[in-house]
Design brief:
heterodimer, A: 274 residues, six-stranded mixed β-sheet, four-stranded antiparallel β-sheet, B: mainly alpha, 84% helix
Chain lengths: 274, 215
């Protein structure tokens, strides 16, 4: 579906009855005077993986960081338009930011565990949320590590430093840390770019498994990764340096990679740019 | 385009050159087969049977190159459809070659048999149409023009009608005549299959151009 067809009705048709609780409407993002994103309209299907692809600087990470308002931390940033989560604009003044960050977890490019034990990393969020009982925390830690496919590898060193784990294990620990607070949406910003192929495969397997329970949005430069794991793909780009990023095409991933509608998408995914 | 991507495109071009060469050999084989039938040239028929290894060799070469491109370059979109369709066309042409071999083998068993001018004329017409269909579908691939495929199904219907007319013309006779008739029917059926491959190639090319499968 090309950008000029990204109307609400055609978007609904594309979703084919899938539940969509996250909806982006006419979103533009500014960093000071610079317009980083322009007029983004998108529906994110629940319990599916949606990938954002596109060249560097096209606004993929900016868009991703709008979903949990991470851009609020950038001085001079502001947004126009809205992002509706269950029909409520997350940018409205009364929206509880702590609640938003609980519902929308995030995993970054480089694994960033706290310099604490494996256990403390996972228990951190639930503790902040007020859970104090050790047996409850134990249960959450084990469940989260199991869901992140890490339990078998760390169960005997759960009180060791998280920094002693391998890069791939650290990244799965970060995913376990997100899962511990029972989010609904997981944002991943290039989660495998610092990992070797085997660790990457583990994360990809994990994401596909988690997609049955969570709504996942991933930014990736690895187009084969987007093709392998995502159900829907948005291709973004800028016309020229200094222009805002826009969504050029959004469709089922299988269609984007076999028969994209927009010539720009085709030129990008077939490597004909530049 | 980066140097690596350029070399990828060059490899696609090379694959297409190989395929075009194979297709020319394939069409030439059908033309020779037609000539062998019409002139009862049994020596030519033997040459066609022996020469089939050439087409088999081409298809293996094209498949190896195509699979290597798929494995190493992971093409997508138009590049993926192009490689996929080239591999399919190569298989169709190889089968066209096999059908020519079948025709020639039956032809050899017709040595000494009397073939009526009407049968010759009908078979010549079938061959001509099948060759024209092959040419048209392969040309549509070369120039990426799906409109060339229009009319292909109608031409195929005509080939089918001539094939059925052979069957309708069967009315007994002595043992020798019946054997000749059965062999003629087999040849007609093989030519009809060649025309079917032309239709299939046309559909594949349409998919390559539009991204939509048609039947």
């Amino acid at each position: 579906m090309q950008v000029d067809e990204l109307s609400a009705s055609s978007m609904c048709e594309l979703m084919q009855g899938l539940e969509c609780r996250l909806c982006v409407q006419n979103l533009s993002v500014y960093y000071g005077e610079f317009k980083a994103l322009e007029d983004v309209n998108l529906m994110i299907p629940c319990k599916r993986i949606t990938a954002f692809i596109g060249p560097s600087g096209c606004g993929k990470s900016t868009l991703l960081r709008c979903f949990n308002r991470m851009n609020d931390l950038v001085p001079g940033s502001r947004v126009e338009g809205s992002i509706l989560l269950d029909g409520v604009d997350i940018y409205s003044e009364k929206y509880d930011l702590t609640e938003l960050r609980r519902k929308v977890g995030m995993v970054f490019q480089k694994p960033n565990p706290f310099p604490k034990s494996v256990y403390d990393n996972v228990a951190y969020g639930p503790k902040i949320a007020g859970i104090k009982k050790k047996s409850v925390l134990d249960e959450i830690v084990e469940r989260s590590l199991r869901r992140a496919a890490l339990w078998d590898e760390v169960k005997d060193k759960i009180y060791s430093s998280a920094l002693s784990l391998s890069g791939g294990q650290q990244q799965r620990l970060c995913i376990a840390r997100v899962l511990a607070v029972e989010p609904e949406i997981i944002l991943l910003d290039e989660p495998c770019s610092a990992l070797d192929p085997i660790a990457t495969q583990r994360i990809e397997d994990l994401l596909v498994e988690l997609a049955g329970k969570y709504t996942i949005i991933i930014v990736t430069h690895n187009m084969q990764q987007a093709a392998r794991i995502s159900h829907f793909t948005a291709f973004m780009m800028i016309e020229k340096q200094g222009d805002p990023g826009r969504i050029i095409e959004f469709d089922e991933t299988s269609r984007i990679f076999t028969n994209p509608e927009n010539e720009k998408t085709e030129r990008y995914i077939t490597g004909r740019f530049g | 385009m980066t140097p690596l991507r350029k070399s990828f495109q060059e490899r696609l071009e090379e694959l297409e050159r190989d395929l075009n060469f194979m297709c020319n050999v394939g069409i030439e084989t059908v033309e020779k087969t037609r000539r062998a039938f019409l002139t009862q040239d049994f020596e030519l028929a033997r040459q066609i049977i022996d020469g089939d290894d050439e087409l088999d060799g081409f298809v293996i070469q094209i498949e190896e190159k195509g699979v290597e491109i798929l494995a190493l370059q992971a093409p997508v979109a138009i590049d993926l459809r192009r490689v996929f369709v080239m591999l399919r066309i190569a298989t169709h042409i190889e089968r066209v070659g096999d059908l020519c071999v079948n025709i020639c083998k039956v032809l050899l068993s017709l040595k000494g048999a009397r073939i009526s001018p009407e049968v010759r004329e009908k078979m010549s017409e079938m061959f001509k149409r099948a060759i024209e269909m092959l040419r048209r579908s392969l040309e549509s691939f070369r120039v990426r023009d799906a409109s060339l495929m229009e009319g292909l199904n109608k031409m195929d219907d005509k080939v089918d009608r001539i094939n059925r007319a052979f069957l309708a013309g069967v009315n007994g006779g002595d043992r020798e005549e019946v054997e000749t008739t059965v062999r003629i029917l087999m040849i007609a059926r093989f030519v009809e299959r060649i025309a079917d491959h032309a239709v299939d190639i046309g559909e594949d090319v349409k998919y390559m151009i539009t991204g939509r499968f048609v039947e």
